Every structure is written in structure tokens, then in C-alpha cells.
């Protein structure tokens, strides 16, 4: 009799567990794949090596541009609309701004002085243009029409990076720390001619690392071996870019004193100079 009671209790407990599991499955969508993805979920960004000011032997500040249209960089841009396990760089950033997990700073300066809210940014990048359009019901007569254009993630194809290159004599190595990121919008006139580039806002990189570390960047060679965006920027430097400025006495960008092919040549010269910092340190 006692064994029968025990078996009944075990059976009822089993039924209750099965029902609770079924309820959990009913409250979430089916698994899109054959395993549960747990990489880059709820993890902390890998900490930098601590550096004392006294150990910094040489430092140079560099600004560079990442062009999303380059084939190597297209994982920043796609998918245009977020899908289940993938988002573009700008979709990740704008979601973070809207949710308040990261903070944007005014683009007029790159020293993170003036924070701006998501609502302020969207209001500043919403334009209402009024124009006269011919009334189709009354040919020859015109009516005033208002066209509203709002900011769209897919319009951003450039990303400006501000970073410091330095020699740490305590470790005897050259190191790089990204300081800030700035999405850049290209403006065109009605004829499709480029008017210029418009920086949208600056992001303080250290403040964004939690978001970046928990968001996958697409790996076109192997989907299961994806890096986080923090790996892309801070550790792997998995992007193609060109240098647009290095700290100088006049605080000038390269395009202020060179043009055409000379821009690329100067960018390449600066890149080689930076790469040789560590080698030159050990020359006797």
C-alpha cells in the first residue's frame, strides 16, 4: 500500500512537471535552429589592462573612417531590418539610445560634453519640406504639400572612430584604445550630388561596451563563430578603414591640406608610422 502511494505521488509530480514545461514552451516561440545560442548573452566585456600615466611613453590620437559600403565592412550595414538573431550596427545603437542603455553626445565636438536624448536627436533629424504640387483634379492650379523626412538607420554608411595609439613601457608594447564612435550621414542635393558629411552624434566607447559585448556581429565564414561588436572594435579590430586625421599643431584634417590621391597616400604614410612606433622604440 505504501509503495502504491509513493508511486502515485511520483506520477503526479511528473505530470505537473510536464505541464509546467509545456506551458513554458507555449509562451515562447519555437527554437529557430538545433541548439540554444548562449554566446555573447549576459556577459561582461573583457577588461582592458590597466595603464598608469607614468607608463605611457608615446601617445598619438587618430581619427579614422569606416565605410560600410566596402565589402569587408558590410556586416556593419546588413541586415537593413533586424532579424531574429542579427542586427546592423546602427539598429543596435539606436535601440540602445531609445532604451537608455547608452548615451549620445552632441556631434559639434568630440569631447563628450553635451549629452542628447533619443527624442532630441529624432526631433533634430526630422525635416518638413513644403512645396507646391499641381492639383491633378484642377490642372494649372497648385496646392501646398508637406513632405516629412525622418532619420533612417539605412542612410548611415560611414562611421568615424576616435582612438589613442600609445606605447606602454611597463609592458613594452604598442596598444590601441578606442575613445569614441560617430555615425556619419552623407547629404545629397536634389540632383544627387554629394553636399557633404554630417556627423550625427558621438558615443563614448567605454560606456557602450556592455551593449557591444552582448550583440553579435555577423561572420560570413561561420555563423556559429560570431564575434561580439566589442571584439570587432576593441580586440580584433575587424574592419577596414582609412585615417582622416592625426593630432597636429594646427588641428587640421588631412583633407584640409591635401586632395585627390594625395589623401590616400598621406593616410597610408600615417598608418605605417603608427605601426612602426613599437619597432622604433627598440632601436639603439
Description:
- This protein is α+β, with helices and mostly antiparallel strands and 284 residues long.
- It is 28% helix and 28% strand.
- The protein has helices at 2-26, 89-99, 118-124, 205-213, 229-235, 261-275, 277-281, and strands at residues 56-67, 104-105, 115-116, 127-134, 142-149, 156-168, 173-188, 194-199, 202-204, 216-217, 227-228, 242-246.
- β7 and β8 form a beta hairpin.
- It starts with a helix and ends with a helix.
Task: Describe the secondary structure blueprint for this structure.
Layout: H1 2-26, E1 56-67, H2 89-99, E2 104-105, E3 115-116, H3 118-124, E4 127-134, E5 142-149, E6 156-168, E7 173-188, E8 194-199, E9 202-204, H4 205-213, E10 216-217, E11 227-228, H5 229-235, E12 242-246, H6 261-275, H7 277-281
Antiparallel strand pairs: 1-6, 1-12, 2-3, 2-9, 4-5, 6-7, 7-8, 7-9, 10-11
